[in-house]
Design brief:
15 strands, about 260 residues, globular, mainly beta
Length: about 260
């Protein structure tokens, strides 16, 4: 689910990963109100969507909403609600995605107790399917919270968390968070360091072996987290859905009425 800076990234040094964590990610940097503007570009740097992140408190909970409005009219709208009392725990999740930028047209809702409801059309020539039920879920679901988990990992440490995937039936995936190396990024004349993470979802157990053999494991993606007293996500690169296009996420500055957009 992400403050960002416009960064020039150069990989420099590799980091050895520590033993994967089994417990929910502990809170080192509590989340609070935030409002940021982002954009998605393709691998050639062409803008495909404008985005907005809004995050706010409701009582003792945090609500985070990330929305992308695509140039072709598609919509990606993800809202996650979570608590942060010593550890992070997902409380509820809602994703709507539709339009020509996506293979699957989806409306997905679930909560931290495992109750889910899904409406999904897997392809334009397929009928819409609807499914609901309850599935046993762990306490460390990462849907919409991956960058938050990465910001709170101790330096050099890897972890394994989980993700609830709905296709439209629900299945819990293992998600391996692995630091791959450091990267230098610049903002004007200032140069800083970020850690590059590989996020690798996997179908567990025997089903996972079969999924690997037939090439149906979920796609991996990468995130860069700035190493600082206030760590932030500075880059995302990967698809937003299985078999989707690879996109890059970066900062987008607000424009006053009448100002021209500067295209890449």
């Amino acid at each position: 689910m992400p403050s960002f800076v416009d960064a020039t990234v150069m990989v420099t040094v590799s980091i050895a990963a520590a033993t994967a964590a089994a417990d929910p990610i502990r809170v080192r940097f509590p989340e609070g109100p935030a409002h940021g503007f982002v954009e998605l570009t393709d691998q050639d740097g062409k803008r495909v969507a404008d985005g907005e992140l809004q995050q706010w408190r409701e009582k003792n909970e945090i609500v985070s909403r990330l929305t992308f409005y695509f140039t072709d009219g598609s919509l990606y709208d993800e809202t996650v609600r979570f608590s942060q009392d010593k550890v992070f725990r997902l409380l509820s999740y809602h994703l709507e995605q539709h339009g020509p930028s996506f293979k699957a047209q989806s409306d997905i809702k679930f909560d931290g107790s495992g109750h889910y409801r899904v409406r999904q059309r897997a392809a334009p020539d397929k009928d819409e399917e609807e499914k609901s039920g309850t599935i046993e879920v762990p306490d460390d679901l990462s849907n919409g919270m991956t960058s938050i988990y990465l910001k709170n990992l101790p330096s050099g440490q890897s972890a394994t968390v989980h993700l609830l995937a709905c296709t439209p039936g629900a299945v819990v995936l293992d998600v391996h968070l692995t630091p791959e190396g450091t990267a230098q990024y610049s903002v004007g004349r200032a140069s800083h360091t970020a850690t590059r993470f590989l996020i690798d979802p996997k179908v567990p157990g025997v089903k996972g072996v079969v999924a690997t053999l037939i090439g149906k494991q979920p796609p991996s993606f990468r995130m860069w987290i700035a190493d600082d007293k206030a760590p932030v996500l500075i880059r995302f690169e990967g698809p937003l859905e299985a078999e989707g296009a690879t996109w890059r996420l970066g900062l987008s500055a607000p424009r006053l009425e009448g100002e021209a957009r500067r295209e890449p």
